[in-house]
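re the bet — no i am not wrong, look at it urself. input seq straight from the record:
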Amino acid sequence: MIVAFIPVISSLFEFVSGNIINLVGGLSAIIMIVTTWIAKKYLIPFLKVEGRRRYAAYIAAIADEVTDELRLKYPDKSWAVYLDEAVDKIIKICDIKPEVARRAASASISRR
């Protein structure tokens, strides 16, 4: 009776060992799909935020330089007088929207 099961077990072992390569290929495809999904979901947004953060730091540095220059140019006038001039210079240099430039200039003034 046991002798009858040996060919069945042998053929089952051959089938499994022959298809291991196909199973590994299928698993690697699934792993690549999951890796791609994780990269799209988490890595790409992180890289976009990093670029925006660097651009915001660039705008803040320019706003600091412009407000410092205007403070040295007009030491006796109040901030409100040359805030519009600072905003215009920041818009010209960075090519950004006026409300962003006004926020950058206001933040620069409040830091000083």
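see?? The two ends are 94 Å apart (CA to CA). told u. also Residues 2-73 form the longest helix (72 residues). so pay up
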